[in-house]
Amino acid sequence: MSDPNQDVVDPDAPVVGMDYFMSLHFEERICPVVRRYADALLEGKLIGHRCPKCALVYAPPRGYCPIDVIETTDADEVQLADRGFVTNYTVVTPVAYYGQEATEPFAKVSVQLDEPGGSLSLQDVLEIGVDDVRVGMRVEAVWVPAAERNVDEIGNRSWGSAEGCILGWRPTGEPDVPAEQISDKVF
Amino acid sequence: MAGDLAIIGYAQSPSWRAAELTEPQFLFPVITEAIERAGIGRREIGFTCAGSCDYLSGQTFSFVMNLEAVGAWPPISESHVEMDGAWALYEAWVRLQHGDIDTALVFGSGKSSPGVPAEIFPLQMDPYTLTPLGVDPVSLAALQARAMLDAGKITEREMAEVVARSRKSAIGNPYAQVTGDADPDALLAEPYFTAPLRRHDLPPISDGASAVVLATAEKAKDVCEHPVWIRGIDHRVEVHQPGMRDLTTSVSTRIAGEKAGVGTAAVDVAELSATFSHQEKILREALGLGDDVDVNPSGGALAANPVMAVGLSRIVEAARQIAEHGKQRAVAHATSGQCLQQNLVAVLEGA
User: A158, B191, B231, B234: which sits with the fewest CB atoms below 10 Å from its CB?
Assistant: First the structure.
């Protein structure tokens, strides 16, 4: 005979947490402008779209200018520089959440590219420690060797990414760009 | 109170099984067309409200990127609902009642193609008792259809007839995804997908968007020759747990329909979000629509089901019936949740 009270929960027992893992699968077709951007990356080139109205350069191209609300096309394509300067950065101190592989603090920077312009966000910095990363620092891209490049992580969602083709950005040693010159380029 | 509002512009994208473009990219021409049709300038819009879903997109804050299709610089006044665009329209309707602005832009958009609906939708259910079971919309709809069959409220032939009529109606609709001449006998000869539902009783998986421009009466008369008036709009929600309600009726649709004034005059046409074939009969009954009412001349959700836009598209299609096909009084219906849990009803009229 079983104990009739065995299923009664002790109201004073501590609350017990439980992990419930789930996963979702997404597979998205790459839109044509990002496809072109990815193909250019494989050739060691950065491309963007320059708005024919306001002349802002979008990298990667989006197919439109959200400021002027006009569509952009291949005719608005420009090749971009792979040099520029840091406009902003974040030092991430990893916490051990599920799936986090990093253990040490790392920096992600936004790079404003030299003429004709455009900016890439969430880029890695090479050759220096996180304490030496600063706004205005001039950097250049370090490309993955051509034979080893891939665009596996380039998708419609990864605006600004050059993962698999650009390893990161290293300081050029040139004088910093003064902060007052980049106050409108904080992103 | 600003009183009756009007639809002065609308547009839809086609419904694609898998769109090549991103959500902001295919929203772009839809929003532009709706504003151009309204005959107003983009900067005249006083309020913008969007409906979309991060889970569908597989991206946090995906609605922020959708704003790139609107023109949000210099900054605009905008809001977002994690619901079908029909509820974004409701929020805009409420916002316009304040009387300090005279136009609003509403849009709904979604890409269902990248994800797996049967994985995603259980996540909107009760996380303790339902999500771990993996209850997906098709399984729940099948239980609902079974309850209707068992209660003698519908037959499998009637379900097949809804499908055949919807696909045929969709033939002339450039925005539809599933069209064609289908014979109910041939449909009934097909195997079950999730009994008692056959594959054709299910909606297609769709990507797409739709948009509406609303205006106060004064503004509408100013800029639009034939505005479509929203005479009533209401939405009601029922208990979440599907086991706690009678799935063969829709109390929330009935109440929303009464509050919106569906029964106060004859209805010419109705656009219903009957996402599964058997739901059309539940909705017809709840709204008191007789056989003389033209239901889903667009083909409805069985012909095109861009989740997060499909309900707003019913309002667009109902407005189209009045503005382009000479109908006088139309009912539009949108739904959310499982088995018609939450329902919105709008009554539209011509001049």
Answer: B191
Q: What is the distance in angstroms between the Cα of A85 and the nearest Cα belonging to chain B?
A: 26
Which of B24, B67, B120 lies at the smallest CB-CB distance from A24? Answer: B120
List, as one string, the DSSP characters of B177-193.
SS-----HHHHHTSPEE
Sheet holding A166-171, edge to edge: A119-124, A106-113, A83-92, A138-143, A166-171
Tell which of B23, B25, B120, B124 to mutate to test the A interface (max A CBs under 10 Å). Answer: B25
Residues A31, B70: C-beta atoms closer than 8 Å: no
Q: What is the pLDDT of residues B173-215, one digit of tens each?
A: 999 999 999 899 999 999 999 999 999 999 999 999 999 999 9
B57-73 mean pLDDT: 92
Report pTM.
0.94
Sites in chain A below the pLDDT cut of 70: 1-7, 158-160, 186-187
Name the band, by pLDDT with cuts 50, 70 and 90, for residue B154: very high
State whether A62 and B115 contact (CB < 8 Å): no
Closest CB to B115: pick one of A24, A62, A157. A24
